[in-house]
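new request in #modeling-help
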Amino acid sequence: DAGVTQSPTHLIKTRGQQVTLRCSPKSGHDTVSWYQQALGQGPQFIFQYYEEEERQRGNFPDRFSGHQFPNYSSELNVNALLLGDSALYLCASSLGPSGMYEQYFGPGTRLTVT
Amino acid sequence: DQQVKQNSPSLSVQEGRISILNCDYTNSMFDYFLWYKKYPAEGPTFLISISSIKDKNEDGRFTVFLNKSAKHLSLHIVPSQPGDSAVYFCAAAGGTSYGKLTFGQGTILTVHP
């Protein structure tokens, strides 16, 4: 049973560029959440997708956007990258509204902005 | 505004002894609490959770205690093992922001053989 997978593992981008991160949820899960984890901090909620719609959003600017596909996989897009966007980006999946609290995380994508 | 706080950045414990990790929260709307463990180069792994209708939940060596009046929860690991060495995060959810987990900053647990 495949867990949550994310790609790529690492990414280096330049300020002002755009980046797309990808996530495949755990088998049977239909809800995907994205988190940003800065060094030495806990993960911070970016947004959550369910039924291909953004259901919840954290305190992140519009430069952060996402998408969920019919197969439940998801993308996180960040435009006009800033140095402060350097972080570990975590994807988590869960099963429907009733299982939204117990989220299963992928290994993350380490983004470095230079 | 840090709604979930883990005030101890690190904890060192001898193998076989008890590890107690603490977490405080400020948002009264939180009604579900979780603990996650994270090893380097891996995503957080769900450990144990507790609903606000309970004050204790056990799963093997792991027990979570919730004190709603003090807005405090703790994770007890008994007995501690070297493989428990990791970063532990508490997280909270509830109210109108179901599905959004609010995490603490994490506590690095080191269990010495």
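bot summary: Residues 46 and 101 of chain A are 15 Å apart (CA to CA).
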